[in-house]
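If you are new to this repository, start here. Below is one unmodified record pulled from the training split, so you can see the exact layout before writing a loader.
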Amino acid sequence: MEDAAAERASRLADAPWREVTPTTGVMRGTWGSVRELFANRELLGLLTRREIRAKYKDSVLGMLWSLARPLVQLGMYYLVLGQFLGAARGIPDFAVFIFAGLAVWGLFSEVVGQGTGTMVANAALIKKVHLPREIFPLSIVGSALFNFGLQFVILLAAALFTGGVNLEHFVALPLAILVTLTWALALAFVLSAVNVYLRDMTYIVELALMIGFWLSPIVYSFAMVKDVMPELFTQIYLCNPVTLAVFGIQRVMWNDGTDEMFPESLNLLLVIALCVGLVALFICQRVFDRLQRDFAQEL
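And here is the target side for that same chain:
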């Protein structure tokens, strides 16, 4: 027993020194994180599958539950807002219009909401195993994309049934998804790191997402916004990347929308939002990298 312990100590002494959180330049640090994530891509796949299975473990309907919430929301908004309050009168195919917005918002809110708590939820792994901590928010992205894919199939079927897909503006669809993922992941990085030190962040994010839902054109059209808001506030409203992403998917999947229901140069606005989002993602990853150095002690 003593010989085995002595041999192990000898191997550890001969092993090269490796810094867990090396101090490097900004670009070198980011590139190092990307390389480490790529080296652990199999682990990322395992964690993503774990997130998906955990949601439907021991349930009878399984993955169908990922459709239950948006469909119930769709029914309630369609009935209460569309029929009782009359919002559907100025918006043709109101159900497709709402479901397109709900799909984008569900993707964004799932990544941000669940991503905020990933460090705390995986505290046991973080304290015992060295691995790139960015892998946990990324696993939430994979799980959210899976759920979004299921909802998108329903949305596509509804769009084809009611009037077809607007192929003329199809480029807005991938741009909208990329904008949503970029900004959601950027927020998930920085919020998950801050949540380690300030556990109230989870509740703050829940309130912010509740407010953010109504700041996006999901249950009302852009034409309604322009009718009641001054031009300056309308331009501020268009600075919200999630708003632009909702417009993008509605422009493609909701074929009955007229030009006045969308901002001018929507594709250009989406490209700008994506470029700014990539910069924000880079900054948030660097903030995450700086804050993660004390995760094990704080957790």
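Two things worth knowing about this chain: The radius of gyration is 22 Å. Residues 61-298 form one domain.
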